[in-house]
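ok so dumb question maybe but i'm new to this and my supervisor (M.) told me to 'just get the structure for Putative PurR-regulated permease PerM' and walked off. so i did the thing. is this what she meant?? sequence i used:
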Amino acid sequence: MRMLTLRLKGNEALAAGILTGGWMLLVAVPLILLGFDLADHIRSLNALIRDLQVDGLPPPPDWLANLPMIGSWLVEAWQTVNEEGTAFFVRIRPYLGQVGNWLLVHSARIGTGILELALSLVLVFFFYRDGLQLAAFVRGVLQRLIGEQAADHYLKLIAGTIQRVVNGVIGTAAAQGSLALIGLLIAGVPGALMLGLLTFALSLIPVGPPMVWIPATGWLAWKGEYGYAVFLGIWGMFVISGVDNVLKPYLISRGGNLPVVVVLLGVFGGILAFGFMGLFLGPTLLAVTYSLLGDWVIKGTPKVVPSTTSLSFPAQKESASE
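this is what came out, is it supposed to look like this??
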């Protein structure tokens, strides 16, 4: 923002508009592509269901029978579903309505999240354009309330917390989603863009990304693509998950002594309480509360001064003299 404002000879509104437009493209284009990708997969799923109703299931793969303990049971279940055919789909038809209602509810939640995201992108323009004036106003209010030194301390704490969330949480999620997309494209997994965005969303959970690349690896093995399955397994374990194990703690720990668990708990609780905006509000509120409690405990702890004299017991001396 500062560099662009200098290039535009101090036109802050134009610089803020250019940056906001860039963010809108960066967010809107993947969402549009995801919508087209989901539509294609829904059509493919409908075609698959029609084919299964007419032709039945394909023969079970050879490796399914070789699974220990459950292989024979899975083969029998496969053949039972294949023999029943249309009756099976008639039996599950009542549950399809429940699945449709569940998808409708979660689609409404996704729409609410997209609306919050659009609102945050609109607010980005004003934060870019009026950010310095807003920061000066907040600093002045805090200095009147809690003093100059404390105001500077908590402003740095808030700024550092937001920066650590952006770099450590969102940055790591973007890196994992991009690496997952690259690996899935190389392996030829269908719906790579959708799975990459799903990896980005699930990276907020410590065990989230393996929920994407492990099933994709199993699907490649089921299709007989053993080379790509081995590649994706190694790529997922050492590259996608390795980023989460190495990059996230490093980025979150930079710029302060706030525990990593406080930031992560703030992220989870903030998303549950406030939605998308809670990704930033939750860690900030928790960091400020944690710092306030720490200062309060330190100020309330009495200082212990070591004594150079020997301990005496007046009550015992009095009783001894008596």
